[in-house]
Amino acid sequence: MVVVMDSGAGEAQIEAVIEKLNGFGFDVHRSTGVNRSVLGAVGVKPEFDTRRIAVMDGVSDVFRVTEPYKFASRSWTDGPTTIEVGDVTIGGDRVVVMAGPCSVESEEQIAATAAFVASHGATVLRGGAFKPRSSPYSFQGLGSDGLRMLRDAADAHGLLVITEVMEVGHLDEVVAATDIIQVGARNMQNFPLLKELGKAERPVFLKRGLSATVDEWLMSAEYVMAHGNPYVILCERGIRTFETSTRNTLDLSAVPVVKSKSHLPVFVDPSHGVGIRNKVVPLARAAVAVGADGLMVEVHPNPDAALSDGPQSLYFEQFGELMDQIRIIAQAIGRTTDQPHVARSL
Amino acid sequence: MVVVMDSGAGEAQIEAVIEKLNGFGFDVHRSTGVNRSVLGAVGVKPEFDTRRIAVMDGVSDVFRVTEPYKFASRSWTDGPTTIEVGDVTIGGDRVVVMAGPCSVESEEQIAATAAFVASHGATVLRGGAFKPRSSPYSFQGLGSDGLRMLRDAADAHGLLVITEVMEVGHLDEVVAATDIIQVGARNMQNFPLLKELGKAERPVFLKRGLSATVDEWLMSAEYVMAHGNPYVILCERGIRTFETSTRNTLDLSAVPVVKSKSHLPVFVDPSHGVGIRNKVVPLARAAVAVGADGLMVEVHPNPDAALSDGPQSLYFEQFGELMDQIRIIAQAIGRTTDQPHVARSL
Amino acid sequence: MVVVMDSGAGEAQIEAVIEKLNGFGFDVHRSTGVNRSVLGAVGVKPEFDTRRIAVMDGVSDVFRVTEPYKFASRSWTDGPTTIEVGDVTIGGDRVVVMAGPCSVESEEQIAATAAFVASHGATVLRGGAFKPRSSPYSFQGLGSDGLRMLRDAADAHGLLVITEVMEVGHLDEVVAATDIIQVGARNMQNFPLLKELGKAERPVFLKRGLSATVDEWLMSAEYVMAHGNPYVILCERGIRTFETSTRNTLDLSAVPVVKSKSHLPVFVDPSHGVGIRNKVVPLARAAVAVGADGLMVEVHPNPDAALSDGPQSLYFEQFGELMDQIRIIAQAIGRTTDQPHVARSL
Amino acid sequence: MVVVMDSGAGEAQIEAVIEKLNGFGFDVHRSTGVNRSVLGAVGVKPEFDTRRIAVMDGVSDVFRVTEPYKFASRSWTDGPTTIEVGDVTIGGDRVVVMAGPCSVESEEQIAATAAFVASHGATVLRGGAFKPRSSPYSFQGLGSDGLRMLRDAADAHGLLVITEVMEVGHLDEVVAATDIIQVGARNMQNFPLLKELGKAERPVFLKRGLSATVDEWLMSAEYVMAHGNPYVILCERGIRTFETSTRNTLDLSAVPVVKSKSHLPVFVDPSHGVGIRNKVVPLARAAVAVGADGLMVEVHPNPDAALSDGPQSLYFEQFGELMDQIRIIAQAIGRTTDQPHVARSL
C-alpha cells in the first residue's frame, strides 16, 4: 500500500499515519519529496480496507499495491491453468464450445439439440433446469426432471453437461447430474453459494455480474478457490452500460484483461449480452478472434416456440455456419476448434 | 404491446405478425398509416417476452405498454402504502431514521450505539450479524450472537431492529430476532431468497442492486409481493457508474421516480453509496430534501476501530448534527422527523 | 508518481525503469520490500502520460500522485473562491439562483420571466440565444436578437445575464451582451473554445460533460484558467448512466467531491439532469441541501408552448414554491438565499 | 408516435391529448382496449419532442415510432453505402485499414510509418496535426507543418490521408490537405462544426462520442448529411462504462447494430478504446470478425519515444502480424483485406 500525503500535511499528521500503519502491523518506508511525503506500507493483507487510512487527516491518496486476490492471480501459477473434464481440456489450444437451449423443455427438444451440436463440434451441452427469472410469472424450469433429460441427452451423444445452480439447497442434486456447474451473473456475489461451491467436486463456470469489475469477478473466483476448489472457469456475458440498443454491452476487452491478471480460462457468452439472434453470430466470431478459450451459445431446434430466451437462441443452421467460421478464425490465431475426442461419441 | 412494422413491410409480413399475436392469445388492433402499420396487441401478460415479436421479419420496434409488475405498481392501490411496525409508521409524514453500525461487534458497541441514536431521534437500530463481504478473508460477522446482541440493545432503548438475511437457511433465525428484514443490494435478484421472503411475517427492506433499473427493482419487490408479503420498503443505496471519486453514485432522482411508479415507501442509504464519512452527511440531508420516507445511516461509537465499513460510519457528533439539520429540512417540505412514540423508550 | 514493480521483476527490469524515469528528468527513490520494489518518482509534470511507464516490462502498476491540474486544485488558494459579478457574490454564503427559459423566444416571454424570477429571489437571468440541438431539424435559437432581448429583460429587473456560447466565432458578441458565459455539457472538452474563454473578460460557467469524471471536469476548468481567466464556476447537470427513467442521473455527490478537490464554486442544474418538470423541484431542493453554491433552473411563462425543453421547465407557481422551500433548507445548513442587492432592482 | 394512456385516464384527458396532437398537425388513430387507450399519431416530424405529450395528465408512456434521422437511416437507400475515395472503396467487400501515428512528429517519423504500413496493406495514412488534448500542458500537434508532412508521406507511398479537424477555423486548410476528415469523439456533438462539414467536399469520418448512444451518433451523421454531405463513415472507438481496467469499453456490438439501423459504413478504432498496446491487436482482430468495414490503428516507428499516445501505438512488427491475422479472419466471413490498387503506389 502506498500512502500519498497532502502537500501541506504537517509532521504530526505524517507521524500519526505511520503510527496507525505500524499499529496494523505494517512496516513503513517513508520518502520525503520536495512537495509531499509518500509512505510505502509493506505487509498489507488482501482484505485490508484502505479507506481506513484514506480518511485520516493530511492523507491525499491511498493506492493498493497488491491485488486483493491470491489464488486467482496470474502470479499464483506459472502459466495458464487447464482443466480436464472427461476428455475435454478447458484452457488449452482448443476453443471449447458449449451449446444448447436456454431451458430444458422436453426430452425431444434436448435430444435433438444434443445430436445437432455434437455433430457440429460442440463438446458440452448446456441447458437450464432451475431458472433464475426476473419475473415471478415466467417459466421457472423443469427442475429435477430437466436435469435428468439433460444428462441423458448428453450421454447419448458423448457430451459433457453444464447447468446452473441457484441455491445451496439444490447443490447436491446438481453436482450429481452435471460435469460443470454454472453460476449465473446475478449470483456472482452470492457469497454463501460461492463458499459451498468451494467444496463441490466440479469445476465452476462463473459468469461475470452485470456491473462487476474484472477485479470483483476475480474476487468471486477467489471465494471458490479459497474454500477448496481450484477449478474455476470465467465467462464474460455482457455488462450494463448506458447503451440500450443491445440487451447488455459485451465487453470483449475483458478477455485479454483477464489473461493478463489471472491464470484462469475465460469464455464468452454472446447470447445474453446481445439478446437478439442475428447479432449473436458476429459477436461469437469476435470472441474467438479476441482469444477466448471457449464459447457458450444458446441453440434451439425451434427458437420461435422456446419457453425462454427464444429470440436470442440460434437456429441449427446458424450454429452450423458459426462453427464453420470460427474454425478458420481459430486457425488465424494458432488455435483450433477440433476436438480430439471424436471416438467418444460412438 | 404496440408493434411497429418497418416502412417497407409487406402485407404477408404484417399478417404473419398478427397471426403470431393471435396465437399467443392477444387481440390485435391494426392501424395503417401512410408510411407504416402499427399493431396494438391487447391482453399481453406481464411475463411475455416482447423479443418474440421483435425478431420477426418486417418488425421495426416493439413497445411494452403495461408495466411488468402488478402489486408493486402505483395503480394497485389508491395512495401511498404505509407500513406499521410496532409503533413506527413507515411511509407516512414522518421521516424514519434507521441507524447503527455496519456490523454488530460486541455488546458494548451496539448498546452504546442504540442509546445514542435513540436519544437523537432514530427509531430503528441497524446492525449486521451475517455479513456479505466481497473478500473471503474479511470479517464475516458474529452470526447468531450478533443477532441476540442487536435485539437486546434495541429492546433496552425502545428501538425496532433491522438486519440483513443472506440465505434461505438463516431466514427463520433472522425472522425470530428482527422486526424488519433487509435484503442487500447483491441479493436484489436472488430469486429463491425473494420467494421465501414472500412467506415471511416481516416487512422486507429491499436495497436496489448496483446495476438495477427502477423497473427491475420493482420487479424484485413484485417477487416478494406475489409470494404473499405485501410489506416491501425500497431503499436506494447507489448505482454503479463511470465515476470513481465516490464508491457508487447515489441516484436521488430514483426517489421521485419510484413515487411516480409505485405506492411503496422509499428510503435512502447514503453511507454505502458515498463510502466516505464526510460526504455522507450532505447526501443524507439531500435525501430528506428530495422526499425520501426515511434514511438508513451507519453510525459507530469508534469508527476508526470498526471491523467493517468504519470509514463510512458517522461519529456520534456527526449523527447528532445531521438529525438537527434534517429536522428543519423535513419541515420545509411539510414533513417531520419527530416520532410520536417517545414514551416507549422508558 | 509511484511505480510498483511486479513481484517477479528482475533487477535489470527495475534498473531499466529507473533509467527511463531519470531520462524524463525525475528523481527516483527506491524502496525494496520483501515481495516487490516500489519506485517513487519526484518532479513529474502534470501532463506526463503515466502509461509510458506502465507498458514497461516488470511494471505492475503506476499511480499518479499529483493531480493533473494546478490552478483548479484546492491547494492553489487558501479557501473557497468567491466571484463578484455586479453586486452578486458567487461562492459565498448566499445560494445564488439563475433562472429563465431554455431559449429566448420573444420579448414578451423573456420580460415576463425576468419580472417573475427577480421578484422571487433569482439574481441571474438565463436564456439560450445560440442553441446546441441534437437534431438538425430543431429550433436553433434567435441568435443576436435573442441576446439583445435577454439583456434588455435582465436590465429592466436588475438581473445579471448568463447565456451559452457554442463557438469561437460568436464569442465577442456573447461577451458584449452577457455577464457570465456558459459552456454547455457537450462543449466541456471543446479545447479551442476553452482556450479562447481563457482570454475572455467574463466568468465562465462550465457544465460537466455527460460522461466526464470530476477530474476531467476540473481539467477543463484548468484549460480556461491556464489561459488567463481565473473565474470558473462549475455546474453539475447529470451524467449518463444505465438508468433511463430520468434523462440523465444527477450526481449530487459531485458537489462535496468538488469541494474537497477544488476551491471553485459549484452549481447544480436539475432541469437537464431530470428532464421532467415535476421531478425538477425535489432535486433542486436536494441540491441546496447537499451544499451547492447555487442553482440553474429552467422557468417559462407557458411551458406547454415552449419552443425547446418545455417539459422540463417549471411553471411560475412551481418556481415560487421552490424558492420558499430552499429558503428554509439553506438556513438549515447555515446559508441563505436572500440577496443583499434588492435596491438594485429599482 | 404511440401514446399510451394510464389505465385510469378519463375521457377528458384522452380528448385533451388528441386535441393537442391535432394541434401539432398529427392525424390520430385511437384504439380503446379493456384497460387503457392507445393513440397512434401519424405525421410526427423527426424533431418533435415527445416529452411534450409525456407530461400531460393521464399519459403513461410515449414511444417514438420513426427514427429521429432520415438520411442516416437504413431505409433511405436500398443497400449499404459505398464511398469511393481515390481508388479505395469504403464499405465494400474489402476491409480498409487506416494506420499511422497519433501525432505527426517529424518528416522522418511519418515517412517511415507510411512506408511500412503501405507495404503491409494499409491504404490510408492517419496522423494528427491539430490535437485535442485533455491537458492544456500537453503537446498540441505540429499544426500546418504536420499537415504538409502527412500529405507528402502519403503521396510518396500511394496512400490516402485522414486527419482530424477540431474547429471551423481550420476547416479549409484541413480540406486542402486531406482526403478524409476525421471528427473526434469529443466533437461528435459540436454542432457548428458538423454543419460546416456538411458543406465540405470530403468524406467525414465520425467517431462515436464516449457516452453517445447509437441513435445519437446517427443523429450527428444526420447533421452532416442534412447540410449537404452524404459521405459519412462511422467509427466506434470505445464508450465510457464503470470498468476501468481498460481506458474505455470497446462496444463491438455497435457494428451489427449500426448495420441494422443505417446504410453507412462503420469502422472500429481499437487503439483509443483499449489504451494499451498489447490489447489492441486482439481487439482489432475481433473488430474484423464482427464485421467492421475497416480499422483505424495507431502505429509508430518508436512508440516509446512518441509525443502522444505511445503506449497504445503498435510496433511495426505487431502491425505486420495483425495484418496477417486479419487477412485470414476476413476470408472466414467472405471478405478480403487485399486492395486492388497496388499499381498506384508507383
Keywords:
disordered C terminus; TIM Barrel; alpha/beta; eight-stranded parallel β-barrel; 346 residues; 11 helices; homotetramer; elongated; 14 strands; Alpha-Beta Plaits; four-stranded antiparallel sheet
Please describe what this structure looks like.
The structure is a homotetramer of 346-residue chains. Chain A has 346 residues and is an alpha/beta fold. The first copy, chain A, has 2 domains: 2-63, Alpha-Beta Plaits; 74-345, TIM Barrel, CATH 3.20.20. Helices cover 33% and strands 18% of the residues of chain A. The first copy, chain A, is built from 11 helices and 14 strands. Chain A has helices at residues 11-23, 51-54, 107-119, 144-156, 171-177, 191-197, 214-226, 254-261, 270-274, 277-290, 316-332, and strands at residues 2-5, 27-32, 37-42, 59-63, 83-85, 88-90, 96-100, 124-126, 160-164, 180-183, 204-207, 232-236, 266-268, 294-298. In chain A, the strands form 3 sheets. Chain A has an 8-stranded parallel barrel with strand order 7-8-9-10-11-12-13-14, surrounded by 6 helices. Chain A has a 4-stranded antiparallel sheet with strand order 2-3-1-4. In chain A, strand 5 (83-85) and strand 6 (88-90) form a beta hairpin. Chain A is elongated. The N and C termini of chain A lie far apart (57 Å). At the A-B interface, helix 2, helix 6 and helix 7 of A face helix 2, helix 6 and helix 7 of B.
Low-confidence stretches of chain A: 342-346
- Sheet with most strands: strand arrangement of chain A: 7-8-9-10-11-12-13-14
CATH topology of the largest domain in chain A: TIM Barrel
Principal-axis shape of chain A equals elongated
Radius of gyration of chain A: 23 Å
Structural class of chain A: alpha/beta
Specify the CATH class of the largest domain in chain A.
Alpha Beta
Q: Architecture of the largest domain in chain A in CATH?
A: Alpha-Beta Barrel
Helix proportion of chain A:
25-40%
Query: What is the total number of structural domains of chain A?
Result: 2
Say which CATH homologous superfamily of the largest domain in chain A is assigned. Aldolase class I
Number of strands of chain A: 14
Q: Could you state the oligomeric state of the chains shown?
A: homotetramer
Could you tell me the strand content of chain A as a percent range? 15-25%
Largest sheet of chain A: 8 strands, parallel, barrel
Largest interface, with counts of residues having CB < 8 Å to the other chain, equals: A-B, 49 and 49 residues
Average of per-residue pLDDT values of chain A? 91
Number of helices of chain A: 11
H/E element string of chain A? EHEEHEEEEHEHEHEHEHEHEHHEH
Distance between the termini of chain A: 57 Å
